[in-house]
Design a protein that fits this description.
Layout lengths: L1 H40 L9 H8 L13 H4 L2 H17 L6 H17 L1 H20 L3
Helix pairs in contact: 1-4, 1-5, 2-6, 4-5, 4-6, 5-6
């Protein structure tokens, strides 16, 4: 009987590991998609205008910046992908809405995918959205 329980426990553990690995790979894919979207926007915008928003996001990115995202600890981090989408949302909404309409739709899809990852993602997004706006308002121009 204990042999069966060990096999069941091993199988459940393996399923859990695959599930967690899949979650991290989804987060990494979303971060990569956000990076591609940002690189698509960069030729048409002045990033210096968004310095305060970028500075806020960079507080949560380890050993690099959001503009040069490296390391698996960043690319597979839920908080980083949430902040990445927040930054992109801020940029797209600050620019002429008709110019980046397609990019805005892509971004909304990414946000929807992030919210589907787990229950914590939506709260994290809302929390950082408020903190980022407060941070940017408190910075001298």
């Amino acid at each position: 009987m204990s042999y069966m329980n060990k096999d069941l426990a091993r199988t459940l553990e393996q399923q859990h590991k695959r599930s967690v690995r899949g979650l991290f790979l989804k987060i990494q894919d979303l971060n990569n998609n956000c990076t591609l979207l940002r690189k698509r926007l960069e030729p048409h915008i002045d990033l210096a205008v968004y310095k305060h928003a970028i500075d806020y996001v960079n507080q949560f990115v380890s050993h690099t910046t959001i503009l040069n995202l490296k390391f698996i600890t960043n690319t597979q981090n839920l908080e980083v992908v949430v902040l990445h989408t927040l930054l992109l949302t801020y940029i797209v909404e600050s620019e002429n809405s008709h110019t980046f309409e397609y990019e805005h739709k892509l971004l909304q899809g990414y946000i929807h995918e992030i919210f589907a990852l787990n229950d914590h993602a939506r709260a994290l997004y809302t929390n950082h959205q408020e903190k980022m706006l407060h941070y940017m308002e408190s910075q001298p121009t």
